[in-house]
């Protein structure tokens, strides 16, 4: 009988460490599985956030009205010789041009190339409080804005210093007879062509 008890105790002694190791490994695997599941949920949430941000991200088309508004406020401030406000709006334009370059490096670099010298001349006129120099600089800037629009395929977007009363400062273009070009497309239209249809559910 004592031999039987000793045999049972020996078997239990040999088995229990192995069982304990197996249980520890199982718990570790279960914990890692839970961690992976949690990370997968976080990744899925981040992907949805990225999709949303990509859908609402600014484009050159959506940013240009901000440039236009600041341009005309700068113009009217210069007319009133409110040089502090004119300077504020001019630096706002410079900031927006930087944002445009981040959004679309090619068009941003083009806009900067057309307007860099104009902004320097406007800045100098504002600093000196020279109304005549300001008028000359801003008039030249209008010409370069329109040249830039033509260069990117939007010649019908003609900036004017005297926008019609029916238009806002954000869309202050000269209204004139024009024909729709088959080659012209907006950025959001181009992006919609590559969007996958929403799944039903």
**Strands, count:** 0
Shape: elongated
Instruction: Enumerate how many helices there are, as a single number.
Output: 6
- Secondary structure class reads mainly alpha
The termini sit apart by: 70 Å
Give an account of the 3D structure.
With about 200 residues, the protein is mostly helical. The chain has a domain at about 60-175: Four Helix Bundle (Hemerythrin (Met), subunit A) (Up-down Bundle). Helix content is about 75%, strand content about 0%. The protein contains six helices and no strands. It has helices spanning about 1-55, 60-80, 85-105, 105-130, 130-150, 185-190. The protein is elongated, with a radius of gyration of 33 Å. The termini are far apart.
Secondary structure topology:
Layout: H1 2-56, H2 60-79, H3 83-103, H4 105-128, H5 131-151, H6 187-192
Helix pairs in contact: 2-3, 3-4, 4-5
What's the quick description here?
The protein is mainly alpha-helical and 201 residues long. It has helices spanning 2-56, 60-79, 83-103, 105-128, 131-151, 187-192. It has a domain at 62-174: Up-down Bundle (Four Helix Bundle (Hemerythrin (Met), subunit A)).
């Amino acid at each position: 009988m004592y031999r039987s008890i000793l045999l049972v105790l020996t078997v239990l002694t040999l088995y229990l460490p192995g069982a304990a190791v197996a249980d520890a490994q199982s718990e570790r695997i279960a914990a890692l599985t839970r961690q992976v599941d949690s990370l997968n949920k976080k990744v899925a949430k981040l992907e949805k956030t990225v999709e949303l941000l990509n859908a609402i991200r600014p484009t050159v088309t959506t940013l240009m009205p901000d440039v236009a508004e600041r341009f005309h406020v700068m113009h009217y401030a210069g007319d009133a010789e409110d040089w502090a406000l004119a300077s504020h709006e001019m630096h706002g334009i410079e900031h927006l041009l930087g944002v445009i370059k981040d959004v679309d490096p090619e068009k941003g670099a083009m806009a900067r190339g057309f307007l860099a010298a104009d902004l320097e001349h406007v800045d100098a006129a504002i600093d000196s409080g020279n109304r005549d120099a300001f008028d000359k600089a801003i008039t030249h800037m209008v010409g370069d804005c329109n040249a830039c629009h033509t260069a990117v395929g939007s010649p019908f977007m003609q900036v004017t210093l005297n926008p019609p009363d029916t238009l806002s400062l954000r869309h202050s273009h000269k209204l004139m007879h024009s024909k729709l070009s088959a080659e012209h497309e907006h950025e959001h239209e181009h992006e919609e062509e590559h969007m996958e249809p929403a799944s039903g559910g």
